[in-house]
Queue: 4 jobs
Job 1
Amino acid sequence: MSLRITRLTPALGALVEGINLARPLSDEQYQQISDALLAHQVLFFRDQQLSPTQQRDFAARFGQLHTHPIYPSHPDAPEVMVLDTEAFDLRDNAIWHTDVTFIETPPLGAVLAARLLPETGGDTLWASGIAAFEALSAPLRQLLDGLTATHDFTKSFPLERYGTRPEDLQRWDKTRLENPPISHPVIRTHPVSGRKALFVNDGFTTRINELSEKESAALLAFLFAHQARPEFSLRWRWQAGDVAFWDNRVTQHYAVDDYRPTRRIMHRATILGDKPF
Ligand SMILES: O=C(O)CCC(=O)C(=O)O
């Protein structure tokens, strides 16, 4: 049976109906979802009842899964990361970021399931790096196209927030040593669609390598503000049973921090990608 796919905004996003993600995907469903992800960059599914192992199995259809070095895992499925505001301080997700760009092969995508939601607040925004790139003037696109930028784990996971207890410090230090700052192109080409996207993010990008420090700071400030423009983004108001699946190669997202001290729990399964070019 064909899925119903409804575009949500001109820049990105689609609602996908007519599928139960708890069941193994047929080849046809896998292909339809892959095509929809390419076309819309972030997909939303409603009324899903996914256990952590079913969420893991759904995500694993799209590639090898990544286990986060800092965030806790679910006991039933270690590849599923638990974002629980009662167990962890999650304020650092209230920044525009692309997940895990501090590694050589940043994630292809991620599947996020709502487990416990505040009555209001706790929305998540996604923005399209393709729309942001395409809206730049031709001379700026040309300048950016040859540049690379440094991405640093410690920008979003600073020692003073993630290394205060001895057991945390050990994990933080190990992660830092295993993930030294790494360079990626500022403009990346989607490996499947061939479309170009802006690939810097406020969460992890620290420097445009080929520019002076001041030039880099000014240009990054402009690019971070530019790619967060409402024209390139959408805001998702979560309901119980919602699942989001985004293409992490060409999007960034922002988890709105407006509901604490109410508890909120999300589960994320993250799919590894390839080396950006
Ligand atoms: O909690 C959310 O809505 C988004 C979480 C997030 O920012 C992430 O998984 O990187």
Job 2
Amino acid sequence: MLDVLRQPENTHLLEYVTRDPFGAHVFPGDTPDYSPEAFLADLDEQLRDTAPIHLWSYIPTCAYRCRFCQYPVVLVKGDPGKLTQWVDWNIREALLWLETVPSLSSAPIGEFNVFGGTPSLLPPEDIARLLDFYRSHFNFGPETTVRFEGDPSTFTTEKLELLAAKGCTKLSCGVQSFDDPVLKLSGREHTSEMCVDFIREAQRVGFERISIDLMYGLLDQTVDSVRRDLDVVLETGVNSVVCTKLHLKSYAETRTGVAGEKPAAWQVDSYRARLEKDGHFWPTLDEQYEMRAVLTEGLRAAGYVEHPTMYFAAGGIGPEKWKSIMVDQDRQDAEVAIGLGGSSSCRRSEAITDVNWQTYAAAVEAGRVPLGSATAFSPEGQETRAIKMALTTLQPLRDSLHRNRFGRSLFDEPWAGRFRSLEERGLAVLTQDTVTLTPAGETLVEAIINTEF
Ligand code: SF4
């Protein structure tokens, strides 16, 4: 991959990946300082007649803080009262959204996810209360799928069985690595054995989709360690894997959903210097691409499909539904995030919920939807966003779909020159109706959409 990046015509891509920003999930508007009230009005209008949307609840509680974590986390070790409080605030915030965006209550929910933080830390009665609330107040139908996120140390058998009984068919679990020293240095308070036990128990209970997060580029991680991660994935047969590169560029700068205020420990220069002085090391860019290749090629050879970028699913179970709702070229529907730092969007604008827990709580207590900021998309910005999102799916972009929605062709300017340039550099293949990324284009999709569109 570095050969491609070192071509003079790809200097901007090399600079982008070297600067280490995180952008594949981020599609901020091109018109800043939009009012949150205007965003809520745009959303309400879009939801009056909509295909199924993505609804999610963010529970920010964690028992410890990982060294790479930039999320707005609230530590609650040994304080169950705080957990219950966050469920109370989440439910109150959801009621405020329903009041302020009247069409939200009837909008069909394609997928409802409880993300975190570590929602699996919640006591069983709060898990049940949260899921029952959303099911009874939003438009869940037979097609609505429900997922719950957590970590391997807190997904107990009792909680897994409760989740299954409440109609939850999907789980997401932060594993990050199956290498114990790498986990320890990352600040994770679980072992690789606990991760495998979680997968086996979730399979026994019968969840349809069990998704684990793996990271590459971690402190002291080697290509061999990632090879062993792949072996464990294949041995356990876990059917969904999200592979993320460690990103230490500030999420707040890129408007990444759920960006917190506090830097991750690994973003602090003096701490990084101390780690390096103690003999620890970061994988080089070359090694990071090798790690990515190990995972991508190994998973593909075993029949997993990558759709969208970084999300791998075993053959037959299909792409992640919530990602498809957001980014597939024929969908790109709304997303509503309820909870500290969540990102919500519709076709005209997007907004991020307050990331400071005190001002968040004060807004909810005062009866106001606690949005922190919003941006809008100009007509050209909406078209650009649609192309960028569709490219991240790694599926062919269809000119016919684009023309139906925007009235002009992908092969007219201003797009034609950009796609031709990708083709000349071996990053895409064009046919009469489609643009398809090549394997090199797929690997670099995040850099391409953030520097060329
Ligand atoms: S990475 Fe996840 S588990 Fe770790 S502190 Fe952040 S939110 Fe909590």
Job 3
Amino acid sequence: MEAPASFSPLSIALSLAMAAVILCQLLLKLFAAATPSPSLPPGCMGFPFVGETLSFLKPHHSNSIGTFLQYHCSRFGTVFKSHLFGSPAIVSCDRELNMFILQNDDKLFKVSYPKAMHGILGSNSLIIAAGDTHRKLRNVVVSFVSWCKSNPTFLHSVDKLSVSLMESWRCQTRVFFCKEVKMFALSVMVKELLGIEANESVGLRILDEFETYMKGFVSLPLNLPGTPYYKAVKARAKLSGIVKEMMKERKKKGLVVGVEKEGDDHENFLDVIMSNWKLDEEEIVSVVLDILLGGYETTATLMGLIVYFLAHSPPNVLAKLKEEHEAIRNGKGKGEYLNLEDYKQMEFTCNVIYEAMRCGNVVKFLHREAIKDVKFKDIFIPSGWKVHPVFSAIHLDPTLHPYPQQFNPWRWRDDKEMSKKVTPFGGGPRLCPGIELAKLEIAFFLHHLVLNYRWKTSSDECPLAYPYVEFKRDLLLEIQPCSC
Ligand code: HEM
């Protein structure tokens, strides 16, 4: 008779371990079958070469997402593939993916403007620079912003420029608002940055060349005489020449930094850059142009949007804004300058500014490129593909913002999560360094505007995303002094 099989504790343990391994493998297989591996999102690559670029860029009211996104999101979902600006691309209207893209700058994604824009921006621009060069140049801009904010003459200068703009409108009943505030925003910038008045001949030349420069960004990259692109490249060369000339003059005179100058002739930031930062000539020119580029058109556009939305909102919005500024003015002596303490009182004003950014979308989307294969949830983004996080889709998402088309500054008071639901200034390592400067400039300007004027826009006026926001008729306003 055979003896019954005996199992040693070791063989039992081994069998159990093998069973556990087999079970785990089975479970893993089952799980993998249930969750599909990340894949390219659905979408449409459009026509050969141009892809879907023209329909993506089709102008629409900037307070809407436009028909292209409407159609694509309803057909493919909030993340889809396409072919834009000459490359295969992923378009993201998904808040989480957008944040992921912004936070992973230089790790998984890099900034990637169409090649043509490099010709206009110049190779040293921090807007296209990466790594250490980006950090170095960005630090200069960050220090410019804190230099301005801590400089009482900057606050006086913004205040004085606002007052003189209000005075220049005294005899007028109609103003082309965008043209006027572009000049205002540029004046603020060139005064602080270069120490010149925008109505000096050199200031006017800068404004003129900048207009041409900006037009190049939204033009076809045809470098042929007469085209907007060609003119923009030339305008950059002229602007660069103007800044270099100024640097030469300053070197000739000898720089004295840290010495208080009398009256309005205070230190300007070009002097500070030249003495305190180890940058070569081309880098200085680039950082100056980047600050002007980043700081003046965007700020002026936002001012236009605020004025537009106030004119098209229920009267209680403007009334509340006016009440805030009357209270501030009543606490001051006649003609007394605004200061940082006053700015801190402008809570509702800041909510008006934020709400105009949410509704008006100064920056609709960004340009990025995947530098390696990226997997995000069930989405696969191949290395080398362009990626476009679209901000307007998040800003106008009805699941995040009830009645998204409604201009309602109070939502910023009532919903403490609002700042997490909008990204008008981008995010991550490239978050706009000029936020506080733009807000302060606009708040001071609004103080004088609401206390001095009432306004109406013409009925057919509206902000259009080209994708840069432009008003149909340069925002033609009918104005009336408040006392009338
Ligand atoms: C309403 C006003 C403004 C808006 C809506 C705005 C928006 C933005 C956005 C969305 C970005 C991110 C770009 C990206 O990630 O590729 C950015 C970057 C930048 N902004 Fe602003 N901006 C405004 C005002 C200003 C001002 C006043 C300055 C001047 C100091 C400025 C200077 C810059 C610079 C230099 C960058 C590049 C930063 C980097 O790449 O690290 N911006 N801005």
Job 4
Amino acid sequence: MASSEYTTSATRGDSILQVENLQTAFFTDKEVIRAVDGVSFDIERGETVGIVGESGSGKSVTARSIMGLIKSPGRILGGSIEFDGEELTTKIEKEYRQIRGGDIAMVFQDPLTSLNPVYTVGNQIKEALRLHQGLRGTEATKEAINLLEAVGIPDASRRVKEYPHEFSGGMRQRAVIAMALACDPELLICDEPTTALDVTIQAQILELLQEIQEDRDLAIMFITHDMGVIAEIADRVNVMYAGEIVETAPVVELFENPRHPYTRGLLRSIPGNTPDEDRLTTIEGDVPTPNEPATYCRFAPRCPKAFDECDKVHPVSLEVEAGAEDHTAACLLYPEDVSQERAIELHREAETESEEEL
Ligand code: SF4
């Protein structure tokens, strides 16, 4: 195999979650939107993996696919989602309900989507404890108070009796995290959990997640559009663009040595990250709707480095250079230790190989 010296997948062996070539599409009268188009990544226990990209890049659809929350007109078309050795894409709704909120819990951007305004916060945590840990009565109340204390809610024995509207935004998000923990999950999916919060509260929530992770050896998948947040929380990062992962690397490597032109653009748009320029750089244009098969680079219309082949060859994730196993980019400029002609050939070969495997 011509491309064997440069791996095409960033997934590894001992993971709690392994997503391989996931494809999720939405069918409308006019078009098929390939919201997630061949995404592969994995998460190990005790690790935080970031998924970053602009809105419309497919981050949330990836999370919803893992949670079994894709509803018509959407559908998982192919690929695999393996959680703790079990394939999830073949599960029926009843089986999925056990996993959702049990082994895998999710925290959304708006805590009010998870909290019911007519029940006290305590009762909602107790319901999760009853369903997932079989706790009832005073035992459940005690545990609900413990969980509220664990997420840093002061005076927890009083606040357990309060309603969501009596909590501030930051406290509500803490309560949602307490509810998620009541399920004793192995994987926590956080979808922009700090976006609606001010920076001080945001920092507190990120710190809280890190503490919980250490205590429980929890795997966390953290979705955000904010590179600053990713730098704070993630161990490894997947950058998504128009339904595809375009770069994967450990967080320090990604920030010190970004390769994909899209990642570079995202990093240049962080305030304070461009010391020699007075103004922030933005990436012109919007993320395109991925409504046709990727036979070219979807970033090409916005890419400052685009060249002729970018409109003709679909770049796949390859190591950025030989031996850089944990750093891959889907860009025809890489691997960078071969000629550009050879790099393009490697992408063509890898694409043909993956088509043959399907
Ligand atoms: S493949 Fe071409 S257009 Fe796409 S990111 Fe690389 S250089 Fe830019």
